[in-house]
């Protein structure tokens, strides 16, 4: 296997949204080369809503930290490395960064066709406000997912286990500009636009992976027909974006290293059996809670969280949709984060709220990256 590649994943703490010290330490101590970093995910402690400026704050801090280490301008950092910040660490969720790096690896000992963690990235073009939450965003996302799969050397959709997307939203300024151009965006509600953007992005993933047919998607199904969904999409909307950033995670025989990724779909917010299923796929059999040795094998836990639209969870009424003070996505992150943390035994989990078309109503995908046995 000449020119084999290895994907490395580092999970490091974040003391505040502008704290990049742990990321810088990885580079300065020689644990990873700055030039090998291909993506950074971040869970920041903001509200995860339209005005969550912890996300762009973290992005700017990362650009400032990485620019001199890469020998490029701050602007060039974001063009080179997808910086995907997801706001909201409600409950006991811990702010943290996930640093993904790719380095050359010596050809590994033949392992009978076993596959290892592979990563591919691709951006879309910038979207106009009138395209967000509509078919152009779906189709452009699908095309970018396919490019990322090809870049990663992943054999096909069956080997894709998680697709992380950072997508834009419609601000009041963008809405006004669209009207001035004679276009009418899908919504004037900036908060609602987050869900539409996430939903269209997720449908793009579903389209690329063959989870839905091309004829099933149009402007009218976005955030209306929730029978259409992807079991591997995770989309997070932010004010700092104008385009979609796509990161595909899967397994490939072309990659070396000891990390693998597996996924399952939570049917609802209490579906820890699905989390256990994802753990089994990476060779971990959980008990009541993972042992310290099992936890040490895990590099990342990636989860989507959503409230059920009927206001019930396994027959019991919940009030997450009726709270006028706290958006339902914040409740969902805290609830699902707590449930999953109870099984994993740690709180630095990448739990993202807002799962429109990302798993069934009230559920969502979960993926585990861990060292193979």
Structure description:
This protein is an alpha/beta fold. It is 30% helix and 26% strand. It has helices at residues 21-28, 54-70, 74-80, 135-152, 172-180, 190-208, 272-281, 292-297, 328-344; strands at 4-13, 37-44, 83-87, 96-105, 116-123, 160-167, 233-237, 245-252, 255-256, 259-266, 298-305, 312-313, 316-317, 350-353, 364-371. A hairpin with a 2-residue loop joins strand 12 and strand 13. It is globular and about 55 Å long.
- Strand content range: 25-35%
Residue share in helices? 25-40%
Largest β sheet strand count, sense and barrel closure: 5 strands, mixed
Quote the average pLDDT.
95
Low-confidence blocks of residues: none
Give the radius of gyration: 19 Å
N-C termini distance:
21 Å
Which descriptors apply to this entry?
9 helices; 373 residues; alpha/beta; four-stranded mixed beta sheet; five-stranded mixed beta sheet
Compose a concise summary of this entry.
The chain is 30% helix and 26% strand. The chain is built from 9 helices and 15 strands.
Layout of secondary structure:
Blueprint (H helix, E strand, L loop, with lengths): L3 E10 L7 H8 L8 E8 L9 H17 L3 H7 L2 E5 L8 E10 L10 E8 L11 H18 L7 E8 L4 H9 L9 H19 L24 E5 L7 E8 L2 E2 L2 E8 L5 H10 L10 H6 E8 L6 E2 L2 E2 L10 H17 L5 E4 L10 E8 L2
Parallel strand pairs: 1-9, 2-3, 6-7, 11-14
Antiparallel strand pairs: 1-4, 2-4, 5-8, 6-8, 10-15, 11-15, 12-13
Helix pairs in contact: 2-3, 4-6
